[in-house]
Amino acid sequence: MQSHPATPRILIADDDPLGAELLEAYLSEIDCDLRTASDGEQTLQLLASWRPDLILLDVMMPRISGFEVCKRLRSDPATRDIAIIMITALDQPSDMDRAVEAGTDDFISKPINKTDLLLRVGALLRSREKKSELERTLTYIEGVERGVDKG
Fold first, then answer.
1. Which partner from 31, 91, 103, 116 sits 20 to 30 angstroms from 54, CA to CA?
2. What are the residue ranges spanned by the domains of the chain?
3. Residue 1: its pLDDT value, please?
4. Class of 9-150 per CATH?
């Protein structure tokens, strides 16, 4: 019997209410638990009590930038595996370099194309689910092997 994956959790971190609303509308086609944060500090505070599978992270936010939020998440073992797509109006190659250095999984430039967004979100969520399945399988195999070693 195959277990069905839990409803994915997605966090939209964007200081622009219209930008966040647009992302919410685009993601309405995905069955997901969706939350929003309006700046980097609020994003980090929310992560203390709610763990998303994926974060759509705006780069230019007040208080703590998306680059800094991404770096902090990658440096913490509790949040290092959360998938991150950085979203920005910045369009210089150096901006993409900074996003990659910060640890993002993907990068989307504004204006956001709905189809592109949904494809990238879907790919990262599927990848995360496959990784989770692999980890469960490895844990099971280790348990079986420990049982065999005892017997």
1. 91
2. 9-150
3. 37
4. alpha beta
CB 35 within 8 A of CB 14: no
Residue with tokens 């496959």: 130
Give 106's strand partners: 85
What own/partner pairs with CB < 8 Å and gap ≥ 24 does 58-63 have? 58/13, 58/14, 58/15, 58/16, 58/19, 58/86, 58/87, 58/88, 59/86, 59/87, 59/88, 59/90, 59/95, 59/99, 60/15, 60/88, 60/89, 60/90, 61/13, 61/14, 61/15, 62/15, 63/39
pLDDT at 80 over 50: yes
Q: What is the pLDDT of residue 151?
A: 56
